[in-house]
Amino acid sequence: MPYRNPLTVKKLRTPPPAETGLESNYLRALGEKQTPVAVKLLGGEVFRGWIEYYDQNMIRLTRTDAPNLFIFKHEILYIAEEGNGRGRL
User: Fold this and answer.
1) Residue 61: which of 31, 81, 84 has the closest Cα?
2) Domain range for 51
3) What is the arrangement of strands in the sheet containing 69-72, beginning at the earlier edge strand?
4) What is the C-alpha separation between 85 and 41, in angstroms, rounded?
5) CA 87, 40, 75 angle in degrees (round to 5)?
6) 51-60: long-range pairs with CB below 8 Å, 24+
7) Torsion of CA 63, 34, 81, 39, to 10 degrees
8) How many domains, the chain?
9) What is the DSSP letter of 31?
10) Residue 5 included in any domain
11) Which helix (H) or strand (E) covers residue 78, if one does?
12) Cα four-point dihedral sign 23, 25, 31, 36
């Protein structure tokens, strides 16, 4: 049996979890506070509103002056909070 130097043996790391729950916590907080957000899609379109509902595959963006949208998450480039402080508590 060969001798293994403990300094040269690499520890096997467990892979990171596929789902940490942070995304759902963040979306829940945005929805509860009705925080205004800008959603940019992969195609370059930007929609503004607040997130009323979300699930594993999509979000519902509620807008005041336009129809509400159901947006698939795989089409979203990013979601940015609007900094105008108009969120409802």
Assistant:
1) 31
2) 23-81
3) 69-72, 58-62, 46-54, 37-41, 76-81
4) 23
5) 120
6) 51/27, 51/79, 54/24, 54/27, 54/28, 59/27
7) -30
8) 1
9) H
10) no
11) strand 76-81
12) negative
Tell me the C-alpha distance between 28 and 45, whole Å.
23
- For residue 38, being part of any structural domain is answered with yes
- The reported pLDDT for the residue numbered 57 is 93
Cα-based distances in Å from 43 to 39, 74, 76, 77: 11, 12, 9, 9
77 inside domain: yes
- pLDDT tens, position by position, for the chain (89 residues)? 667 666 666 677 777 667 788 888 999 999 999 999 999 999 999 999 999 999 999 999 999 999 999 999 999 999 999 976 554 43
CATH number (domain holding residue 68): 2.30.30.100
